[in-house]
Specification:
223 residues, mainly alpha, 7 helices, binds fe (ii) ion
Amino acid sequence: MPWTELKTRRWPAFDNDLDGISRETMEDHFKLYEGYAKKANECRGILKEFDYSEIEGNQVYSQLRAVSIDYTFALLGFKNHDLYFGHLGGDGGDPAGPFAELVEAEYPGGIEMWQQAIKKAASAARGWVMVGYDLNDGSIFNYIMDTQNLWAVYNMVPVLALDVYEHAYVRDYGATPDGRKQYVEAFFRNVDWDHVNRQLIQAQGAKEGADATQAQEQVSVGR
Ligand SMILES: [Fe+2]
């Protein structure tokens, strides 16, 4: 299927009052999301139009290198926010459903341990914490990302995206570590666990589909 232009979506979170995240923050944040979509489309368009028989491929600096790298920043800026806004506007509380079951199985201390872990990860990250489902082994993990695209891992499908860039909370809580912690508490009061579970079910379906192809490489396990 050929690439098509990215489009932002007006998720329900933009039309409902959130608990502890202001409408002003959400509207300013939407503009950033729009900007990432616009620039991702622009970069992808440029990359489709290059004359690859002539263009320079230089590792120090080249237009090809610059646009290719910035495309990943813009594209993940779009994707990260698409998930973030999509699962805001819920009733929050403790995780439920398949997500909760997976977390219980993954963490020795269960959901309470995972909640402590993601809150500490939110203080340790510079940009995002992505709770990702691994298509290779079916595990779940809190991935720290320092920018829109830095430390992203192959075959990890994000099912929950916690934006900890200052723009997500500075208006409501100030630019301090304590302000960020208050924002993270507010984030979890607004998570729509049904949306998270839909992401997870889709990711699990992708893994099951891949496994069902029986196209896996047949090699022995190394020492
Ligand atoms: Fe953001």
